[in-house]
Sequence to fold (112 residues):
Amino acid sequence: MSRVDVQIMGQGYVLASPDGEEEALRQAAQRVNDAMCSIRDAGKIKARDRIAVLASLNLAFDLNKQSHAAPQTAPNAAPGGDAHGDGMEGDQILQSLISKIDQALQSDGQLL
Fold:
């Protein structure tokens, strides 16, 4: 495991990352940051927890759309795997992302 420093809405987070997955985690954090800043910049919502929930829902919705739009199995996919070849279905990927977000926010203690 390695440590990755990211910024989300101006707040720093230190996240644990599996070795070799640091850039993927940075990209995911940037996506979360972009989604949250977009909601914040729209000006209607100011509370960080509400922004985080809406951003999470938007990202989950996009992920769900992508997983249903993509073929369920690729010609070279392993048996029981999905088109991404990682063996995770959309719901499992979403649950994994939510778990990572929970871990990152857990050390924050307070979102407001």
Residues 2-72+85-106 form one domain. The first strand starts at residue 2 and ends at 8.
